[in-house]
Amino acid sequence: MTNQVVDPLAYETIDQIPTGAHICQIFSDDDEYNEVLLKFLLNCLKLGDCAACFSQKANEREINNFLNRHDLSYGELLGNGAFILSDSSEVYFKDNLFNPDQTIDLISRYYQESMELGFSDAWVISEIPFEIQEVSGGNQLVEYEYRLGLLLNKYPIISVCQYDVRYFDGPIIKGILKAHPYMVVQGVVVRNPLFSHLFEYK
Fold first, then answer.
1. Buried (b) or exposed (e) across 52-67, using 16+ Cβ within 10 A?
2. Has this prediction a pTM greater than 0.85?
3. CA nearest 106: which of 162, 60, 64, 147?
4. What is the percent of the chain with per-residue pLDDT over 90, rounded to a whole number?
5. Is the Cβ–Cβ distance between 23 and 184 less than 8 Å?
6. Residue 182 to residue 180: CA distance in whole angstroms
7. 36, 27 Cβ separation under 8 angstroms
8. Would you tell me how many other CB atoms lie within 10 Å of the CB of residue 171?
9. φ, ψ at 188 (rounded to 5°)
């Protein structure tokens, strides 16, 4: 009889988070957002993993200085493909159109290229811009999150999706939470009791 691995309720450290984890952070101020972003970046890069950060809020100079203070060269990380920083609006709704197929394809290619570069694990840490609600295709956002969760079964990226609760309404936040098996609470990754395997958003 084999031992059954039981998923813990919380992951106190980054290296405990399983590959393929689909995590959301619902934040209400920029300091809260920034603290989680820098914590995850530092830990995954220290582990030798690669990370893509899609954000409008992230400050390149601040990330550079932060990583340098922790003995990581920002320039080297960019040069060897360990770190990518992109404006999230360019990723999610270039030309004022949100096309989930294109974004899913971009993340798939990122994972494949990361593996070809020799990295063991790949992270995508993305701040979802609130303007996505105003562009064509933005009504597919929650459906996209469910599809991303399915993609992670094939390409085991660790994905952290960050949403500013000040700019998304209650039904969307509820749908987003249902699409993520894990969430960030006070800087700790925990299992999300609201998660549903079924796409239910209306």
1. bbbbeebeeeebbebb
2. yes
3. 147
4. 83
5. yes
6. 5
7. yes
8. 11
9. -110, 135
